[in-house]
Amino acid sequence: MAEVCVVGAGPAGSVFAARMAQLGHQVRLIEQARFPRSRLGESLSPGVEPLLKSARLETALDARGVTRVRNVWVHWADGMRLREDPREQGLIVDRGAFDLGLVEGARSHGVKVLQPARVVDRRQYGGRWLLTLDVEERRETVEADFLAEAGGRSAASGRPRIQTGAATLAVHAYWRGARLPATPRIEAGEEAWFWGVPLPNGTYNVLAFVDPKAFRGARGALEQRFLERLAGSLVLEACRESGRIGPVQAIDATPYLASDCVGANAIRLGDAALAIDPISSSGVQKAIQSALSGAVVANTLLRRPDAADLAILFYRAQLSDASERHRRWAADHYGTVAANRGGQFWTERSQGREAAESAPTHEPIDARAMAGMSVELSPEAAIVETPCLDGEFVGVAPALRHPRLETPVAYLGGRALAPLLEDLPKGRTPLQIARAWSNRMPLDSGLAIAGWLVNHGVLVRTAESGGGRPC
Ligand SMILES: Cc1cc2nc3c(=O)[nH]c(=O)nc-3n(C[C@H](O)[C@H](O)[C@H](O)COP(=O)(O)OP(=O)(O)OC[C@H]3O[C@@H](n4cnc5c(N)ncnc54)[C@H](O)[C@@H]3O)c2cc1C
Questions:
Q1: Which protein residues are within 6 Å of ligand 1, measured from CB?
Q2: Which fold has domain 3-67+92-163+256-328?
Q3: Is pLDDT above 80 for 43?
Q4: What pTM value is reported for the model?
Q5: Cα separations in angstroms, 165 against 98, 311, 315, 341
Q6: How close is the Cα of 151 to the center of ligand 1, in Å?
């Protein structure tokens, strides 16, 4: 049984620690702060809940301190609109309660928690790690076979990393009062964007995302510059009848990707490895995803050293794909404002968008059009061996590669794709193809997969009905 030390008990550290304990390792989770402690990252994207369920940590979302989000006011490039999600999949949490719930969850899975304890030094000798900790007034050492760095942004600063978007500073403060809005707001300002988040404890977090140079170059105290930036915004207007509590704080929000995210006996997780632009409000989801796949990678490194290269390759590719996907998404999102009103703040953040715009776009094909269309496998589709998660280890699986897919896809809806594409006869409709797969899956699932393949240009019209062109 390997000894594993995890530094930092944010979402990445706690989820990784719990998974490693479930995989049979002896795990220590070391956290410097006493919990509950406050933290930004209170809006959780829809993927968080299913990921926590998969790790058996969903109790962190116990009703206290969680609000389900149905509506968000969005005042972006095209005026004000109410974005509605009837399924209420997004959540707003009290990060103090949420992170504490995750640590308790990790402990219930057998993780030993050292808290408060700050890791002040880590070094290797004889293939093992020796960590020095400040615990209260004492200095202690612990040893480990494997080290997971999950200390958040502070663990990534001063380390080799690639900045993946414009430098950004988040300046924020909390408001309290009886008439605060119950609906979150996102707003594009002059040279900044604003976010108003009603928290489960009745306070309201107001954030301004600004260019650090321009903001620091302005005159006045932090508080004054913050309020000046927000002047005239709908987010601040909503707080008119309430009072600010606590100080104005500034925190770096620049996205980056660490260069050294994994080695034979160490891994970096969450913000210690990858920070995405906060506009997507999915930093916590990304942190949990890196923890879950990171646990499989670490398990492979510890138990199947002969597959170490594969596991390392897999983890690096996963992080850099995620970073690139988010970079492009954010550039696109900022680009809609840049196209509308220009301005250095918006133009700088939409860099890289031109490339996305010049890529060929394809209108999705609706179900009715698909019904009468006979298709075949695109000549550009190929099956390639790709590293992927295979239960508790990283393995290789045949995956579909196609120019319109960002990465090779081995599984779709939990089903291996390659066997479905073998010997696919020409000239059948997506419905006939789904029927041919009906001995392997329900018709609905087959239709969903066939539809996805058509809409991604993997299944194209047969030569007779359209010349083998992408649909
Ligand atoms: C302005 C801003 C707004 C954001 N808003 C959102 C949002 O709305 N939604 C969202 O999903 N994400 C958001 N994010 C991103 C989100 O906050 C992070 O992605 C997420 O918290 C990362 O989790 P983590 O576990 O990697 O790190 P963290 O949550 O930062 O946890 C790291 C932990 O490590 C501990 N630690 C550090 N060093 C040591 C040490 N030496 N010894 C012991 N312990 C240590 C720290 O005390 C801390 O508890 C936002 C980020 C910013 C900057």
A1: 7-13, 30-33, 39-44, 118-119, 150-152, 154-155, 170, 251, 253, 270-272, 278, 281-285, 287
A2: FAD/NAD(P)-binding domain (3.50.50)
A3: yes
A4: 0.91
A5: 28, 27, 21, 20
A6: 8
